[in-house]
Write a structure and sequence with these properties.
Structural class: mainly alpha
Number of strands: 0
Distance between the termini: 63 Å
Radius of gyration: 26 Å
Number of helices: 8
Low-confidence stretches: none
Shape: flat
Mean pLDDT: 85
Strand content: under 5%
Oligomer: single chain
Helix content: 55-70%
Length: 161
């Protein structure tokens, strides 16, 4: 059973926030936020609202989306327009004499309802981060040898004693 469903069940049983937090291994503040969200989901506004039974019948991803709807900035039409152009801007930044301010001014000329400079830079930076993936290598000391070398090929000599 998902954590959210367990939280709802414990709340229905009359358990307190501290007890729920200890039982599920999450913080009291997280429990508080989830219970506030549960209250807003079960409150009927404009004919919309869910019963506890309806929430329990939902599949885990659907229920999770109700409690964590995501960032509204990525659902905006402006973002869809910018997203279509981000690859172009990313490649243009590699050219000499091109900077983010220049690209933003070009973007604003074509879009009267455009993002501010800071949001433009933020979305461009997110793309740059995604294009440079990194990995964390977990190993025990002395278990493996990793060599990351950029340059001329290494030479080595085998010494016989």
């Amino acid at each position: 059973m998902s954590t959210i469903k367990q939280l709802i069940l414990l709340h229905q049983q009359g358990k307190g926030r501290k007890t729920i937090a200890r039982t599920l291994g999450i913080s009291k503040n997280t429990v508080k936020v989830y219970l506030e969200k549960l209250k807003s989901l079960t409150t009927i506004k404009d004919g919309k609202g869910y019963t506890i039974e309806e929430l329990f019948r939902m599949e885990h991803p659907v229920l999770e989306a109700k409690f964590h709807p995501g960032n509204p900035a990525y659902k905006d039409d402006r973002y869809e327009d910018l997203k279509a152009r981000l690859d172009y801007y990313f490649n243009e930044l590699k050219e000499r004499g091109v900077n983010k301010k220049l690209l933003w001014e070009e973007y604003r000329q074509g879009n009267p309802d455009s993002y501010s400079y800071s949001q433009f830079c933020f979305h461009l930076h997110q793309l740059q981060i995604a294009r440079r993936p990194s990995a964390v290598l977990h190993h025990h000391p002395g278990e493996k040898l990793y060599i990351d070398f950029a340059g001329k090929p290494l030479s080595y000599r085998q010494v016989h004693w």
